[in-house]
Specification:
homodimer; alpha/beta; Arc Repressor Mutant, subunit A; Nucleotidyltransferase, domain 5; five-stranded mixed beta sheet; 13 helices; about 40% helix; globular
């Protein structure tokens, strides 16, 4: 069942749905399993497992694989998820790009469309996204299309805020603060739309398709134009009362010490003005480089431009105490780190962050384990497309 | 039922237990209610409510009160919790006191014992606490004693750590880091012992008996010798993977600027060395005052000693960004503030904190609502005694 809403009683229909989703999760984690494996793992009775498996088979969510000999008895049939059992569309909107992707039940990307451009006003974006959704859905057969779980929409909340700190000037972003894009997209396409902020969406992709196959509790960081964050607790995503939990980007930090750092009005600045690819671009521009495109930025990172290292030190100097504060609150033992650009950046970031965290970890506490994210630049698209999967098929 | 453990199927026994606890919670919040009120509020069927009410009546957890006319039909009987339906013992261990209290199902303190002294070694403390438990239980009749839900044990984790920052020198505390006091106490008394860190325990008291009657999501702060914190999310307490969620005391903050502030080895200090009554005592001693006892400290606070205000400014200067960081992570709309000492301190703290938070809240976000805690200096004892109540009778 869905996590009990405060004050709401639970009934046997919800119980059944919870157990169904639990079996799907167990299969996602194990890859292949017999009914006996599933009963053992979930502590459900063999009868309950048998009945649920029949229902999942009818819904085409699972398929039967090979057989495995067990002791002296009959060989047992192995069950696995059917990759074509469900599909999800993801739409990721950012200040500088729009991306639409179709994934299958295994998380593989089947089709995608991408526009690298400053975000247009909401109604223009709606036309663009509707056309992209039609385009990616064209790869499905009519039968498969019936198994579309819905559309996930991932976007930074408050697209119109913090423009100064991000070095952006286009006032058109502010129209997005009033837009109800998820609602409009659902109306225009006739499909269910699941909205989340982009940090949560990418964390949900890790939870459903990445490190979450192994771990239930982690903090997820994504270094993109801004820094995104999501929190996995007991296998679920912490949303917060207004959907903004894990809002690490606006944590207070000391102003940066780079010559390119913006003057801060007060004693404190926001983490996003130091730990973000926007801050890196700003520092590279200050060093005389042109960084008009994502590819240009990736190239400068790959070439080991000295300004990249300068920025990285300033980024870590802000990120380490902010992350340490987050870990104090959440008490999760690991942090998953991913970024929009690699070319050695993620490794360098993890190496320096590990040192800084070891330094700042208080007596009687342990620094977290740092793990690499699973999807890199695809985290946004897969994150968005994971939303309908997660909300429809995860026990929560 | 208990919150589903990751990977564990749910059955109808757990479903029933969840719904029972939900009815108890609804009664705790409403005070009095008819069966029809309960069905409406919990979205359970009338039949389910009737059957659960019968079971709760048999367990003596509820009682029937007056009748209320509803429209033209029969008057409905009102149901309420039976204050004598369950009892809980709380033991709160701190670096400078040991407190034992007995509460009833309404949260009223029926008996208590207190020792204001430096914490003795674990085995000596065990004898003391066992005698105190026997003493407080003596007020119950044999029938009532059968309805004892257990013993709650609240203590700061890592009693042996951060002694420098707290201005404590007794190395005897370090024996506590190895003690398994909850286990030993259970063995010595034959009672179920529920252990929590003191911040979580006091937050659970708020959740079960205080502001939680109205609110499901809040951050709870308690200014004691150290600063304690607990997190209520969706009506449950966030424990974290190692029971240390809400560990605000060890968040990194800049070193203090008071002449009494300890020299910090690095760039960062811990919040507890600025925002704690230990820090206040240290600053008062630096100003030439003697603060050997809790009463002496309370007197100096009440007299408006200028050093109190100096410390308060330094405390807020550290607390505001730490709290803001916590709120960014958790996305809860309110903070409940309580302290071991009042005499105007809580009001002054709340007033200054509200100003500092308004100043530090980023664009597009709102500062939290600040509320006064319900229990003041009793938060520790009631918090500890709430633990067996919460774990036995709260839907989670």
């Amino acid at each position: 069942m869905d996590k009990p809403k405060p004050g709401r009683g639970q009934n046997s229909v919800q119980l059944r749905r919870y157990n169904e989703r639990l079996l799907l999760q167990t299969l996602r984690r194990l890859g292949e399993a017999s009914k006996a494996d599933l009963a053992r793992k979930t502590k459900l009775t063999n009868t309950a497992v048998g009945s649920i498996i029949n229902a999942l088979d009818e819904a085409r969510l699972i398929e039967y694989g090979g057989r495995r000999m067990e002791g002296r008895g009959q060989p047992s049939t192995l069950i696995r998820l059917n990759p074509k059992g469900a599909f999800g569309v993801g739409v990721r909107i950012d200040r500088e790009s729009i991306e639409t992707a179709l994934i299958d039940f295994d998380g593989a990307i089947l089709a995608r469309r991408q526009h690298n451009r400053a975000l247009p006003p909401p109604d223009e974006a709606l036309h663009l996204v509707c056309a992209d959704i039609e385009a990616v859905l064209a790869v499905l057969s009519p039968g498969e299309r019936k198994r579309l779980a819905g559309v996930g929409l991932a976007q930074p909340y408050n697209l119109g805020a913090w423009l100064t700190q991000l070095g952006l000037t286009d006032p058109a972003f502010q129209a997005w603060d009033k837009a109800e894009f998820a609602h409009d997209l659902s109306k225009a396409t006739g499909l269910a739309v699941f909205g989340e902020n982009d940090g949560n969406a990418a964390a949900i992709a890790e939870l459903f398709y990445g490190c979450g196959r192994e771990f239930d509790d982690f903090l997820y960081l994504f270094l993109g134009p801004v820094i995104g964050c999501g929190i996995a607790l007991e296998g679920d995503c912490l949303r917060g009362v207004s959907g903004n939990a894990g809002d690490i980007a606006v944590m207070p930090v000391l102003p940066g010490s780079l010559p390119s750092s913006p003057r801060s009005a007060g004693k404190w600045d926001l983490l996003l003005s130091r730990a973000s690819l926007n801050a890196l671009s700003r520092h590279l521009r200050h060093a005389g480089e042109s960084v008009e495109t994502h590819a240009a930025l990736a190239r400068l990172v790959g070439a080991g431009h000295p300004a990249v290292n300068e920025w990285l030190d300033d980024c870590i100097d802000a990120l380490a105490p902010a992350l340490q504060s987050a870990l104090c609150m959440l008490d999760v033992p690991r942090v998953i780190i991913d970024a929009d650009i690699d070319n050695g950046l993620i490794d360098a970031l993890m190496r320096k962050l590990a040192l800084a965290l070891a330094d700042i970890t208080p007596e009687a506490r342990h620094p977290p384990q740092l793990l690499r994210g699973s999807f890199g630049a695809d985290a946004g698209a897969i994150g968005a497309a994971s939303l309908p999967m997660f909300f429809s098929f995860s026990p929560r």
